[in-house]
Amino acid sequence: MVFLRCHRSKYIWATLGVLAFLWLYIFPVYRIPSDKEMVDEVLRQGQIWTRNQTGVDLYRKLLTECCDPKRMFAVTKENSPIGKVLWYDGEIYHYHTVNNETYPFFVQDTPLQLPLKKCSVVGNGGVLKHSGCGKEIDQADFIMRCNLPPLSKEYTTDVGTRTHLVSANPSIIEKNFQNLLWSRKSFVESMKAFGSSYIYIPAFSMKPGTDPSLRAYHTLADSASSQTVLFANPDFLKNVGRFWKNHGVHGKRLSTGLFLVSLALGLCEEVTTYGFWPFSVGLDERPVSHHYYDNILPSSRFHTMPEEFLQLWHLHKSGTLRMRVGDCAKEGQEPKREK
């Protein structure tokens, strides 16, 4: 009886050990730096930055091997012929089979003139307010923006005016334009702010987002828009998500910003990011709103923004990309704390 009890006890402890190991693998125990610690870290780094071509080449190679952004970032007739099964990257059991109805919506092949040279990837963080970064952003050869942000006159000094590619998540179409089920005029008018850009829509990430995404395509086509809709390839999104999970980002889903930065690292010779700052205080230790245009917080169920920032900050320190988190109007000046 004692032997059986000891054997059972060892079995239980072994089982608990395995479960604990699995838990730590899925939800690793580590501490994200506090807002103040990150402010101190950025201030120590200062404005000095040197591009590291070896780091640039390495990440382009890694992203090419895992995700092939040049060929796979968008769904095209070349990579998704009729009969191709597109498995939704945000859901396990749903898929879309390319058919005669959806195939004509896809561009023939990657439409970008590669390689792209100097790229700006513009997030929507409140750190952009009063940054004066608009002129610097607009000087890039190719500018990517996230989730149809407002570009009205009151913001352009800080965020610029030019756009070459802007993402449009179906959740934005649902929230701001009622899934385009009723009037579509406001959607067409708001899209004019992005000029003749590419509209990058993850239509095949979550099944509920497919119909609103296709309606967005039809709305722009019917209005004779000069914009081109590109549907994000779910295979690309899935592989990019796996890539960053292997590098320490454990959120349920990457933010749109990190997807676009990944795309830029794979396609651009030089990448600078703006508006990526998920902390509640800025370099002057004053409060920072979540977005430059509002202070509505995102759902914490999907993204781990501080983890994403730490990965990008590592790339900044290594010279692989440049992060702008301070005041562009005071180029060359070290950020100082307010007394």
Automatic annotation (TrEMBL):
List residues traversing the bilayer: 12-30
Q: Is Membrane one of the keywords UniProt gives this record? A: yes
Give the reaction(s) catalysed.
Answer: an N-acetyl-alpha-neuraminyl-(2->3)-beta-D-galactosyl derivative + CMP-N-acetyl-beta-neuraminate = an N-acetyl-alpha-neuraminyl-(2->8)-N-acetyl-alpha-neuraminyl-(2->3)-beta-D-galactosyl derivative + CMP + H(+); a ganglioside GD3 + CMP-N-acetyl-beta-neuraminate = a ganglioside GT3 + CMP + H(+); [alpha-N-acetylneuraminyl-(2->8)](n)-alpha-N-acetylneuraminyl-(2->8)-alpha-N-acetylneuraminyl-(2->3)-beta-D-galactosyl-(1->4)-beta-D-glucosyl-(1<->1)-ceramide + CMP-N-acetyl-beta-neuraminate = [alpha-N-acetylneuraminyl-(2->8)](n+1)-alpha-N-acetylneuraminyl-(2->8)-alpha-N-acetylneuraminyl-(2->3)-beta-D-galactosyl-(1->4)-beta-D-glucosyl-(1<->1)-ceramide + CMP + H(+); a ganglioside GT1b (d18:1(4E)) + CMP-N-acetyl-beta-neuraminate = a ganglioside GQ1b (d18:1(4E)) + CMP + H(+)
Q: Where in the cell is it found?
A: Golgi apparatus membrane
Which superkingdom?
Answer: Eukaryota
Oxidoreductase as a keyword? no
Among the GO biological process terms of this entry, one is: oligosaccharide metabolic process
**Which residues form each disulfide bond in the chain?**
119-268
Pathway involvement of the protein, from the record: Lipid metabolism; sphingolipid metabolism; Sphingolipid metabolism; Protein modification; protein glycosylation
The protein in question is named Alpha-N-acetylneuraminide alpha-2,8-sialyltransferase
Q: Which organism is it from?
A: Sinocyclocheilus rhinocerous
The organism's taxonomic lineage, starting at the top: Eukaryota, Metazoa, Chordata, Craniata, Vertebrata
Encoding gene, per UniProt annotation: LOC107748471
